[in-house]
Amino acid sequence: MVRTVLVLTDDTDRTASRVTAELALRGVPVVRLDATDFPVKVSMSAEISTGGSWSGTLSDPETGSELVRLADVGSVYYRRPTQFTLPEGMSRAEQVFAYGEARRGFGGVLQALERARWVNDPASAARAEYKPVQLAAAAAVGLRVPRTLITNDPERAYGWAKQLDRPIVYKPLAGIWHADEGQIRIIYTSPITNPDDLRDPAIKRTAQLFQEQVPKRHEARAIVVGDQVFAVAIDAASDRGRTDWRSDYDSLSYRVIDLPADVRTRLVDLHRRLGLAFGAVDLILDTSGHWVFLETNQSGEWGWLAAETGIGVAGALADLLTQESNT
Q: Structural domain of residue 103, as residue ranges?
């Protein structure tokens, strides 16, 4: 019996649609939901007793029709679900309480599905969002990482930069997208051209990440799916794109490359160490010919690279999602 793949992501996720289309071509049953659908558009009933596991259904509360039986879920493709949408008319205190109950109840039951394979496990994915954790794990498996400082001490930052005596950059620890009074602002990797700027007292306000600026031939994104690695070189034709390719997509060109075997092996080892089945890794090929690890994103994008180069990530993910879980 072919078991159901449950896809948890938002409605606009076209990258996930590549995987669901591949699964559909193989005749694999797929149910696609978003956390925001619970509890208004999706209801859950689940039960457990001594010696058993969670059983029950996810249903449409308006029609009562069954969306999926929990026992039928063979794997969960956990991409980028959005926040729960609660019923209208609740006070702020009621919303806070109800949201916590939804996360622990709806989310907890799904994570307790012992026979389901997760890509990726939410707990491991949440831990891997911490860049210090990633960098430590990458160094532990033998990947090269940039010399990095995290501090809120301006004098320590200044002294480190002076001792390093080479170009450095600032990077946000929480990704590039940030809310600012009703607007979304983007914070790209930013060169620090004057070390004296690091003496700014504002640095004391929170943790800051500074790295050596790695001299690069080009960058690459490597998509790790289980023990497979798909790599695409990213060449930038503008100064902005060379500093942070995400800032100037129009200047980019792409080509499929083969990473050295030792780098591929270490990337797979890194994701196993982090408890991830999938990761989108950003790398630099430096001017000395060494590959340098920057970060991995547990829900990183690859759809546009597949469109540009034809890399077979969707098929690899479909293979992984239809394997029997070892748990």
A: 4-120
